[in-house]
Structures are given as structure tokens and as C-alpha cells.
Specification:
Helices cover 70% and strands 3% of the residues. It is mainly α. It has a two-stranded antiparallel sheet with strand order 1-4. Strands 2-3 form a two-stranded antiparallel sheet. Strand 2 and strand 3 form a beta hairpin. The radius of gyration is 25 Å and the shape is globular. About 4% of the residues have low confidence. GO terms for molecular function: transmembrane transporter activity.
């Protein structure tokens, strides 16, 4: 009975009141999105400044040309994103792009049909990417050295195949550069559609497949990825195959843009692709980044060139100066994020 009375009294005691401030969890922004957010801010500011300073800057025609004129760079930057996410680098994409234009132009001139020439040009890029991947993983050569060797190889093959510019008149390539009027000044080309399709496929692959998760895991820590039983070897080779394939496809889109194949095409384009990926928020150390951010980086580079063109009085070298300044700012931002994360 005594025990029952004590139980009843304990139940009747008032609940203790909480004193002091109540701590409520506030939503915080994931640090991974900060570089991409910075890219969006830069892009919006450039649009606002350009729209207020120049007439017709925000017209449909100018914005459509932004995608059309950079469709090949978008495809190359997508492939570069895969490589940098693993902590690697690919210096060969510009030369591989040029090799693709030279192969396709040479084959068209010598009577090869489009259904043979186009796959051959893309396959050449994939083979060079596979060779680089094997050098990086099997022979443990630094990506910088392996891709530098591939760059010299591809550029040398360009001079062998097409020492002079070869015009392309094949109707299939010509159609890739045909503008489709969407009304209101807006237009798109098949090359632009292909670039957007590549972006969608890359986005789904990186974020919704096991392969994509493995890419991020390798960039976060290759040894940890091995201990988790992930297919590190296959993935490291495949990312360079993807980069080479994207460079080969980008070469075809550039051939449609310029209607020619030339050995000096794409000189320095690997630097533009790396700059677009870094400005788009992908960490150079790997493990963090988004393919959509790389697309925004390409659009930022395109807007810089557009503003320089509208200004008229500025030299084209200002494009490189502004890109260099932006790249420096985003690299410093990445470094600060990495230090803070540690």
C-alpha cells in the first residue's frame, strides 16, 4: 500500500519547467553549394550590368547565341568535371577536340559517309582517354604528365592529318549548325540540343547512379573508396574515357560551328574548360562539385566575351584578364572552404 501511495504522489508532482533560452535548429546552407551560389551571383550581376549598360544585351538573340556559340565548350567542360571530381586533371581535351575536327574533315573530303566519319572522330577521343586512364591508374603516372603526353600526341596527329585547314561541306555537319527559330529572337541549333542532352545525361549519371557516387568517393579519398570495396580502378579509367569522348564530340560540334577542320583548333581550350569547371564550383582537390555548376561557369565565360564585344573599345585580351581574376577569386574561395572544413 505504501508503495502505491508513493507512486500516486509522484504522478501528481508538476512537471519541471524549462528555464533559459530554447535552442531551435536553424536551417543552414550546405558548404558544398557556396561556390555554385557565388557563380550564380556573378552571373546575375553580369546580366544586370550588361542589361543596364548596353541596348539589346538581354535580347533573345544574344542569350541564344550564348548557348549556341559555347555548345562545344559545354560538352568539353562536362567531361572535365568528371575528371576533376576524382582529383585529376585533363590537359589533352583541346588537342583531342582538334583531332576530332581533323579526322572528320579528312574523312569527309575522302568520301567517307557521315555515319562512319562521326563515330570515328568520337572513338578517337575515347581511345586517347582510355590510354590516359590506363597510364594514370595502371602505371601510376601523374594525371598532369599523362594528359600532357596525350596532348602532344593528339596535336601531332592533327598536323599529320590536316596541316592546313580543310573545309567541311557535308550536309550532316552543316545541319548541326542550322539555327531553329523559336520566336522572339530566340533560336537554337542541333549542336545546342546535343550539348543540353549531354548535360542531362551527365547530371543523372553523377547523382543517380553507383558510378557517379564512386566518382565522388574517389575524390573524397581514394584509399577510403578502396576500403569500401568500390570499383576504383574501373572508375578512374572510365572518367578519362568520358572526358576524351566529350572532347571528341565537342570537336564535331566545333566543326559544325566553324565548318572546317584545322590542326590549330582548340589551342588553350583545356584551360577554358578547367576555368569553367572551377568557376562553376568544383573543387580542384576533387570530391565536391556539380555538372550544372560547370555549365554556369561556361555561361560566365561567354558573358565576359559578350560584354567585351558590346564594349567595343576594349581589347579582346581583357577577356583573359577578367577570367584570370575570377579564377583567382574562386580558387581562394575553395581554399577557404577546405580549410574551414578541416
Amino acid at each position: 500500500m505504501a508503495t502505491d501511495e508513493m507512486t500516486v504522489k509522484a504522478r501528481k508532482q508538476p512537471e519541471p519547467k524549462l528555464t533559459g533560452a530554447v535552442h531551435r535548429s536553424r536551417p543552414t546552407l550546405d558548404r558544398r553549394y557556396l561556390p555554385v551560389l557565388g557563380t550564380v551571383v556573378v552571373l546575375v550581376l553580369m546580366l544586370i550590368i550588361g542589361g543596364s549598360r548596353y541596348d539589346n544585351f538581354l535580347s533573345g538573340r544574344v542569350m541564344a547565341n550564348l548557348l549556341i556559340n559555347n555548345s562545344f565548350l559545354i560538352v568539353v567542360a562536362v567531361g572535365m568535371t568528371f575528371v576533376i571530381l576524382t582529383g585529376g586533371i585533363d590537359l589533352s581535351v583541346g588537342a583531342v577536340l582538334a583531332l576530332s575536327t581533323c579526322i572528320s574533315a579528312w574523312m569527309f573530303v575522302h568520301g567517307w559517309p557521315a555515319y562512319v566519319a562521326i563515330p570515328a572522330a568520337i572513338l578517337a577521343g575515347a581511345l586517347i582517354g582510355w590510354a590516359v586512364g590506363v597510364m594514370v591508374h595502371v602505371f601510376e603516372i601523374q594525371p598532369f604528365i599523362a594528359t600532357l603526353a596525350a596532348m602532344f600526341l593528339a596535336r601531332g596527329l592533327c598536323y599529320v592529318i590536316a596541316p592546313e585547314s580543310i573545309p567541311i561541306t557535308d550536309p550532316t555537319i552543316v545541319k548541326l549548325g542550322t539555327r531553329w527559330d523559336l520566336g522572339g529572337g530566340w533560336a537554337i541549333t542541333p549542336s545546342g540540343v546535343i550539348a543540353l542532352a549531354v548535360v542531362v545525361v551527365a547530371f543523372v549519371t553523377l547523382h543517380y547512379t553507383r558510378f557517379g557516387r564512386t566518382v565522388y568517393a574517389i575524390g573524397g579519398g581514394e584509399q577510403s573508396a578502396r576500403l569500401m570495396g568500390l570499383p576504383v580502378a574501373r572508375t578512374k579509367v572510365l572518367v578519362y574515357v568520358i572526358s576524351g569522348t566529350c572532347a571528341g564530340l565537342g570537336g564535331l560540334l566545333f566543326a559544325a560551328f566553324s565548318s572546317s577542320g584545322y590542326s590549330l583548333t582548340g589551342v588553350g581550350m583545356e584551360l577554358d574548360a578547367i576555368a569553367a569547371v572551377v568557376i562553376g564550383g568544383t573543387l580542384l582537390t576533387g570530391g565536391s562539385g556539380f555538372v550544372l555548376g560547370s555549365v554556369l561557369g561556361v555561361l560566365v565565360l561567354g558573358l565576359i566575351q559578350t560584354i567585351i564585344t558590346f564594349e567595343g573599345t576594349l581589347s579582346s585580351w581583357w577577356t583573359k584578364i577578367v577570367i584570370g581574376a575570377l579564377l583567382l577569386v574562386f580558387v581562394i574561395l575553395q581554399r577557404l572552404l577546405v580549410v574551414r572544413r578541416r
